[in-house]
Amino acid sequence: MSHALSPGDDIGAYMAQLGQAARQASTVMRRTNTGCKNAALLAMARHLEAARPTLVEANARDLERGRASGLDAALLDRLELNESRIDAMIEGLEQVASLPDPVGEIDGLRSRPSGIQVGQMRVPLGVIGIIYESRPNVTVEAASLCLKSGNACILRGGSEARESNAAIAACITRGLIEAGLPEAAVQVVATTDREAVGHLISMPEYVDVIIPRGGKSLIERVSREAKVPVIKHLDGVCHVYVDASADLDKALAIAVNAKTHRYGTCNTMETLLLDAPVADELLPRLAAAYAEHGVELRGCERTCQLLPDVTVASEADWAAEYLAPVLAVRVVDGIDEAIEHIERYGSHHTDAIVTESYTLSRRFLAEVDSSSVMVNASTRFADGFEYGLGAEIGISTDKLHARGPVGLEGLTTRKYIVLGDGHVRR
Amino acid sequence: MSHALSPGDDIGAYMAQLGQAARQASTVMRRTNTGCKNAALLAMARHLEAARPTLVEANARDLERGRASGLDAALLDRLELNESRIDAMIEGLEQVASLPDPVGEIDGLRSRPSGIQVGQMRVPLGVIGIIYESRPNVTVEAASLCLKSGNACILRGGSEARESNAAIAACITRGLIEAGLPEAAVQVVATTDREAVGHLISMPEYVDVIIPRGGKSLIERVSREAKVPVIKHLDGVCHVYVDASADLDKALAIAVNAKTHRYGTCNTMETLLLDAPVADELLPRLAAAYAEHGVELRGCERTCQLLPDVTVASEADWAAEYLAPVLAVRVVDGIDEAIEHIERYGSHHTDAIVTESYTLSRRFLAEVDSSSVMVNASTRFADGFEYGLGAEIGISTDKLHARGPVGLEGLTTRKYIVLGDGHVRR
């Protein structure tokens, strides 16, 4: 029941053991059928259900230690595992079990003039390393998505959640064993030594990709030091551009929703761009709506002429990811200036245009180089659930491999398959 | 007509200028329509045709300098631009012009319960840096694929081909100008200083991906030092496994073709695995066929018992990419041992099974973790042209992003698009 490997003094040797075991497990996972993977997910859900008291107790010890060491209220909130969060973990497992299995899907199988048939088959990446911070429910989310996509994974959670993560890991292991899968298909790193991360990101022989989930400094450190490919999720400096051709009621609804639906998420609008001809009419209506929500505005000169009470934005405001009830507002002259602004200051995450113009909607979709580009919709829709991926492991701001919300498909790759009948090349 | 930027003493400043110009050009290329891109490709072809004498003269100077500096015959052959190679460059441009444009393709546009429609749009990567060695025709191949896929590119050829590359670059530039495209859409680095490569692979703000084409040492150096994602193409240690269920005539044809069709290519078979029950019958027939082609065999103990003249293979032979008329041969006990051998010694490039068994063909396809996996076909088919990509920029041995032959699609990425009608998130 307990994990075979335990960390000793030599963290490097321990991590290499985990890596080796994961690599071996990945060759089993690769050929595990959908039914068996789903059985493991549902068994994990049952074991979490049965372990509720244990989970809450383990989490209480983490919370106590956190409080004693002075963690702030926001961090303590993210660390907490209460009954409703355990419900959510269990529902998450059931939901991932119900998603279609991407592995084995064959695309574009076509006959070639030589007589061979060529197509692409979707296959697991292999071993995925995930590094995350305080939220212990990530342990279940990450494990379930990696398992369903046929990968083995090595999970490194935050030290503040170590007892909660160990209790969750025990349920995951029981589920794997019950379904007849290798325990090493999901391994939770059992040391809080920071050195472990350094090893995890430097073992290309055992780990195929690293996904860091957490603050900017974690992601930047991992990206800088990794010797393994990284799927990363950096800032969301998202824009809504309201063109002169917009329906102003839609513009108002979208601009308010994109800012105020939630402040701390990466798909929240941080800068609003208004086309000059509609600024006069729209700005006062927007200002009133934002005032109601307690959103502070920082404006360009032209904004401040129309709204004298607004603070003048500095250069830094245009590139800021506030994650707070603050919004930068700029009046621009048409779509070209808007796209230039987005190109210069944006983070290529999610940007939207509000317009009734067919031509401008097509231009914006084609020319804005962001992971999600929207017409007449709130940036808050940029999310794996809203997009129908079922669940997401993060939102990639990379261009290669996976871009935007990363679901099961982003945890797979496609290899070519060739079917012949004794064919040789002439 | 001539390029605006020229390298001075400060290679770093020069490369940053190229990068900045490329980034700017990429925003134009991204929105350039198919007709205009094709017009540029065909204009380049016409300018190459008109410049034949100039190209041959420039190449003669490269060849002369190469001979004087003692380049070996193989390198001099790759460096040579004769009339038939110029024909091939011109045909290549015409062929890329005739390929479908991947940019703008929208996949899977579906309505979501919230009312938005979500899909994925194929878009250029942005700026691609390509580093290659002696063959000057790569300049045209790389430029044409990057252009057709809507990217700007920075090309760094080998110093031994510098005059040839400059002459080709002049034709490319004329073609761009004629089609009204920015000259900086294709830039050939005009210095042979090795420092230039170091800068090219360290400018993530200007370059989105690096593709090294050349020997293993070049690719390893670039991968190790790059601060930009690299699409790489490493060794091809390819296998053919002949199962006991094989049709032995097909097995013989495939095993001979996979080894002898060409020796120096990455998709050439380097190790042949024979299932024990058919080794007795097949080995003597194979040995005779290989002897005819002058292929030297290195065998496992069981092979050497059946063919006493064969040299015993060392451990190094199992991992060797010979690129020569040499073949390692091993007798194994069934598909499991074959897959284990491929997993342990292979390079995840291209591996084939010969079998008449439905079940074993499905297992091999699912379980062998290589960029191309084949049933009853020669490994030599692993090639962009044979797969119908029209052309290839290389064969990726990476798992992320592009795997296997990389054509136009591999030079693009997909972003999410969201179409709404004033939709906000509840």
TrEMBL record, chains A, B:
**Residue ranges of domain Aldehyde dehydrogenase in the record:** 20-292
Q: Does the keyword Lipoprotein apply?
A: no
Q: Identify one Gene Ontology CC term for this UniProt entry.
A: cytoplasm
Superkingdom per UniProt: Bacteria
What's any GO biological process attached to this entry?
L-proline biosynthetic process
The family database entries (CDD domains) matched by this protein are listed as: ALDH_F18-19_ProA-GPR (cd07079)
| Top-tier EC class | oxidoreductase
**Compartments in which it is found:** Cytoplasm
> Which family is this sequence assigned to?
Belongs to the gamma-glutamyl phosphate reductase family.
Q: Which NCBIfam families match?
A: PRK00197.1, proA
Q: What is this protein called?
A: Gamma-glutamyl phosphate reductase
Provide the species name.
Modicisalibacter xianhensis
